[in-house]
Amino acid sequence: MFPVKRYYGSPEVYERKLDDVMKRFQVDSYNFNWDRWGCWVEFRFKGELYRFEHSIEKAKTQGIDLRSGAEAFAQVVLTLEDLARMVERGVYDLSTWVTGMRYLPDAMETPEIFKKLGFVQVPAAPEEVKDRYRNLAKKIVAAQGSDNEELEKLKQTAEQALKYFEDKGKR
């Protein structure tokens, strides 16, 4: 196993360091957690969610002996500090470094309502649903006229899809 510097500071020290790093990155919204076994830090940068995770188990696979999730948290914070130094020195832009680190949540099944509108995944914004509805409605009207059942079904489907975004916003 590789020797690891022990972090004798309390986790609160690293929480303050994390706050300083996020200010250096100009990130307003971030979240973190650490427990006995590991930790994670996530933040939004230019609209994208990024998540850094570390654990005793993950460190062990790299030959690093950590004793607690607090030590894993310290390592993540120190790594983010190193990244901040590189950005401040002009070595790399933060966007360059974190592009490949975007947090991708577990794949979720696309709701049927969006599939009916021709989406393969949930659209990013309600505007996409509105645009898709307008385009499909134009095609239906051009082919069949404005007074038909298919157009009404399309309207109901689009309304349900928009309701999905409203409901999501309430959570």
Structure explained in plain terms:
The chain is of the alpha+beta class. The chain contains seven helices and three strands, in the order H-E-E-E-H-H-H-H-H-H. The protein folds into two domains: 11-101, no CATH class; 112-170. A three-stranded antiparallel beta sheet has the order 1-2-3. Helix 1 runs parallel beside helix 3 (69-88) and helix 6 (126-144) runs antiparallel to helix 7 (149-170). The two termini are 45 Å apart.
Mean pLDDT: 84
Query: Beta-strand percentage?
Result: 5-15%
- Please identify the structural class as seen in this structure: alpha+beta
From the alpha carbons, calculate the radius of gyration and give it in angstroms: 23 Å
Number of helices: 7
What's the β-strand tally?
3
Low-confidence stretches: none
Report the principal-axis shape: elongated
Q: N-to-C terminal Cα separation, in Å?
A: 45 Å
What number of structural domains do the residues give? 2
Give, in order, the helices and strands. HEEEHHHHHH
Helix content class: 40-55%
Q: What order do the strands of the largest sheet run in, or round the barrel if closed?
A: 1-2-3
The major sheet is characterized as: 3 strands, antiparallel
Helices, strands, pairings?
Elements: H1 11-25, E1 30-34, E2 38-45, E3 48-55, H2 56-61, H3 69-88, H4 94-98, H5 112-116, H6 126-144, H7 149-170
Antiparallel strand pairs: 1-2, 2-3
